[in-house]
Amino acid sequence: MPKMKTHSGAKKRFKRTGSGKITHEQTNMRHKLEGKSSRRTRRLALDAEMSAPDTKTAKRLLGLR
């Protein structure tokens, strides 16, 4: 059986941490930043851990177990 290819979109959006968790960038950081408070933009700039139900799907797309 051939090897499973990594999903091109997923590899650009998700990263795997050293402990095996999946992280992603948060939404609402693309435009209209003047209307958002500095506190909010600083918080949104940090990567977030993916929710448990989505982690299984993301790991499969990345070719992880």
Q: What keyword list fits this structure?
A:
12% strand, alpha+beta, Factor Xa Inhibitor, 3 helices, elongated, 65 residues
Q: How do you describe this structure in short?
A:
This protein is an alpha+beta fold.
Walk me through this protein's architecture.
This protein is an alpha+beta fold. It has one domain (8-61): Factor Xa Inhibitor (Irregular). Helix content is 35%, strand content 12%. It has three helices and three strands. It has helices at residues 8-13, 38-44, 52-61; strands spanning 14-16, 22-24, 48-49. The chain has a three-stranded antiparallel β-sheet. Strand 1 (14-16) and strand 2 (22-24) form a beta hairpin. It is elongated, with a radius of gyration of 15 Å. 3% of the residues are buried.
